């Protein structure tokens, strides 16, 4: 049985902490929810958090105002320490400080390993990395939050690590697939927003080839449709 810590960081119930809740967990306004909120924009039974194949999966229970994870609307999604869940005017931070620190530490280890493969790590840094990855190292949130590498490391955690491909279509793997599509959706949106159309009397172009630009727009639209289809499977 998985244990999940939820910390309410904004909204009417701000400051409440629910430590090590056993799954499944329901969140909503009605009595009978494991986490009962006073937010009038939250549905009676708004969302459910459960464990499936060693993953923690959030499912929106057809709520009126929807659910967002890390700012993006979701129907079903895998959640991890450090993720933000928004429902109504309430914002919930997933995980304890130690759990979030551990996730950041694992991310740092992966990024440093990638840099070593590319030959971007000096001998001194390699020694430091080796010491850091040893068994005695216990990360703290304060130390991990102050770690800075390249500009990539300053992006949200959810944008740094590509999700794994699912092997089948169990509930947990539906969440994985939704996360995968969401990952590409965010990246494509970033490209599209940075595209600039240049117009002149004798020329009109964008920063990308027009065919590629339209191809990206088409893929962007298709991914949005796929995400919706995954979130609303046929009965």
TrEMBL record:
* Gene3D superfamilies reported for this sequence: 2.60.200.20
Pfam families for the chain: FHA
List, alphabetically, the CDD domains matched: FHA
| Top-level lineage group | Bacteria
**Domain FHA intervals:** 25-74
Q: Which PROSITE patterns match?
A: FHA_DOMAIN
Mind telling me which PANTHER family this protein's record contains?
A: NUCLEAR INHIBITOR OF PROTEIN PHOSPHATASE-1
Q: What is this protein called?
A: FHA domain-containing protein
Q: Which organism is it from?
A: Thermogutta terrifontis
């Amino acid at each position: 049985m998985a244990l999940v810590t939820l910390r309410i960081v904004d909204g009417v119930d701000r400051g409440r902490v629910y430590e090590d809740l056993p799954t499944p967990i329901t969140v909503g306004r009605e009595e009978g929810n494991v986490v009962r909120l006073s937010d009038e924009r939250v549905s009676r039974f708004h969302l459910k958090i459960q464990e499936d194949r060693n993953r923690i999966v959030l499912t929106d229970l057809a709520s009126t105002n929807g659910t967002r994870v890390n700012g993006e609307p979701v129907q079903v999604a895998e959640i991890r320490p450090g993720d933000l869940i928004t429902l109504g005017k309430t914002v919930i931070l997933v995980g304890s400080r130690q759990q979030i620190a551990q996730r950041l530490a694992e991310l740092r280890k992966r990024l440093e390993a990638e840099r070593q493969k590319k030959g971007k790590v000096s001998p001194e840094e390699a020694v430091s990395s080796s010491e850091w990855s040893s068994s005695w190292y216990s990360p703290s949130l304060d130390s991990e939050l102050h770690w800075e590498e390249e500009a990539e490391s300053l992006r949200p955690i959810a944008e740094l690590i590509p999700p794994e491909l699912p092997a089948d279509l169990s509930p947990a793997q539906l969440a994985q697939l939704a996360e995968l599509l969401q990952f590409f959706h965010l990246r494509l949106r970033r490209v599209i927003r940075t595209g600039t159309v240049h117009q002149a009397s004798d020329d009109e172009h964008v920063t990308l080839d027009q065919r590629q630009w339209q191809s990206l727009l088409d893929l962007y639209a298709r991914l949005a449709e796929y995400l919706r289809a995954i979130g609303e499977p046929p009965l």
